[in-house]
User: What shape does this take?
Amino acid sequence: MEKVLSHRVQLVLLVAAVLVPCAVLIALSVRIFGQERELRSKRQADERQRIVVRARDALLAALKPIALDEVRTDLRLGQAYRHPETVFVGWTEEDRLVLPWEPERDQAARNCRELISQPGFEPAIRACEQLGNQPHELALTTGCYQRAVAAARHPQQAAYARWLLAQALDAGGRPGEAAPVFRTLLDTGPEVTDADGIPLALHAARALLEEGAVDRRISSSVARALAQRPWLPPMSSFVVTEIAERLGRSAKNPEEKRAAEELGREAAGLVRLLQQAEALRNDFPRVRAAIGRPQPAWVAYGDEVWLVGAAGNPQSGAAIVVVRGQDVFGRLAVPGATRFADSRDSGGEPLGEAFPGLKVVVASNGFSLEDPAGDLQRRAFFAALLLVVLITMFAAYLLWRDLQREMRSSELRAQFVSSVSHELKTPLTAIRMFAETLQLGRCGDAETQSEYLGTIVNECERLSRLVDGVLLFSKTEQGRKTWRLRPVEAADAIEAAVRALEYPLSKRGFQLHTTIEDNLPPIAADRDALEQAILNLLSNAIKFSGDARDIELGLYRENGEVVVKVTDHGIGIAAEEHARIFEKFYRAPTRENQSIPGTGLGLALVAQIVKAHGGRVAVDSAPGKGSSFYLRFPHAP
Assistant: This one.
C-alpha cells in the first residue's frame, strides 16, 4: 500500500512539474502578446491620427489660396469674388443665404439694369416699346431700335437694343431680317445679359433654333457661355437644356450629335448645381451653425461634395464661399490616405472641428497597420512555444510511461519474490517433512523409506531447476551469460528433460506422448540451456493442463528448421495475451492463473534462450482448447 501511494505521489509530482510550468509559460506568453497587441493597436490609432492631422493640414493649405478672410465685404454690393475652384460666393442676410444669381445680386443683371436706365438710353428704348409690331407700324419700330443702337454709348446698350430689334422683326413676321441680328448676338459674351441676368447669346440661340437654323456657331456660343460662367441664373439652365434638346433632335452628323450631347451634359450639371444650391439655401440655418463655431470651419455638404465656408461672422453677415470638394481633393496627395468622404460613408476618420461632416479614409497599405515582421515573429514564437510544450508533453509521456513501467515492474518483482518464495517454500517443506520422518525412524519398511528418499531427491532437483532458472535469467538480463554453442542432437536434450520430469509426471498422473522424427540434423545449441527451455515448457504444460492429463512432445523438421513442439490440452491462452506471455514477470490475468503458482519467468527465459540460438518461439492457443508452443532452431552449419 505504501509503494502504491508512493507511486501515486511520484505521478502527481511529475504532472505538477510538467503541466504547471507549461501552463505558466502559456499564460505569460498570452499576456505578453496581449499587451503587445494592445500596444500595436495604440500605435495604429496614433498613426491613424497622424494621417488625419496630415490630411487636415493639407486640406487647409489647399483651401488657403481661396482666402476667405480676404473676400471683400463689398460683395454685399454685388462685386464678384472669383476663384477657379469656387462654385459660387453667396451672402448671408438675417437667417437666409442669398445666392449670387438672384437678380438683385447678379452683377451682370445689375449692370444691364444700370446701363439701360441711363438718361440718354432709357427714353429711346421706351419710345420704341410704345410703337407696335403691326405691319404698318413695324417700319417705325425697327427704325426706332436702329436709332437706339446708334445712340448707345456702351456695348451692353447696343446689344440690348439689337436684341429688342430682332424680337420686333421676328414678331412682325420678318424672321429673315431678324436672323442676322440674332447671329450677331451669338458673338456677345456671357456677361451681356438681359435685366434677369440671362445672357443675350442664349436668347439668340433659342430664337434661331425655333426658326430651324442649326449650325456650329449656336452650340459654340452656348458652350462658351457655360465655360465662362460656371453658374447662370435658374432660367438660363432651362434655356440651355431646351437648346441642347433641339440641337440633338436636329443634328445631321455624328459630330453635331456629340456636340449636342456634351452640351446636354453641361446643362444637366448646371441644373444639378442649381438644385444643390437651392437645397443648401434651405438647409442654411443648420450649415451656418456648423460654420459659426469659434474656429473657422469648412462644412461638407451635398451629393457632389461642396466645402462651405464663411468670410466674416455668418450670424451677422458674411460672404459664404462654396468650393467644389473633388477639385480640391483631386490635387492632394496625403501619404496613408485613400480619399476624402462625407458623413454618409461608413468608413474613414473624422477630420475634426475644422471640417464638420468630412472624413478621410485611411489606406491599410498607406502605412503599416499590420506588422508582417511582428506577425512572423509571433508565429515563430508560438511555433517554438508549441514545440517546447509538445516536447515537454512528449517527455512527460515518456517519463509517465517509464514510471508506469517501473510501477508495473515493481509490482511484478514483488509478485515474483512472492512467487519464488512460495516455489521455494513448497519443496523445502516437503524435504523437511520427509527428512524429519526418516530421522525419527517412522518409516515402516524399506520401500516407504526409498519412496521418501526419492521424494526428497526430486524436490531437491526441483529446487535446483528453479534456482538455475533464476540465475540463468539474471545472467541473460545482465548480458553476462556465455552461451556454449556446439552441435547438439535435440533428441538427447528432449530425453534428458523427460527423465528430469519423469517423477512429477507420474506422481500427478500425466501421460507424456513423445514423437521424435528420425535422422534429424544437429543444431548449434547450449545443451543445458536447451534442456532448460524444454523443461520450462513441460513444467508449464503440467501446471496449466487443468483436468487434462495428456501432454504431447514432438521433435521434427519443417521448412529447413528443427522444431520442438510441446502441446497440452489445458486452460489455454487468449489471443490478445500471446505477445505478452513472453515478457518477464508477466502472467495472464485470468482467474485460473491466480491459483497456479509460478514466477512469470519461465516463458521469458524460453524466449531469451531461443533468441540466443538464432531461433524463433511461437504459440498457438485459445481459451479452453489448450496450448502448443513451437521452438524453431536453424540447422547446425
Q: What stands out?
A: Residues 205 and 218 are 6 Å apart (CA to CA).
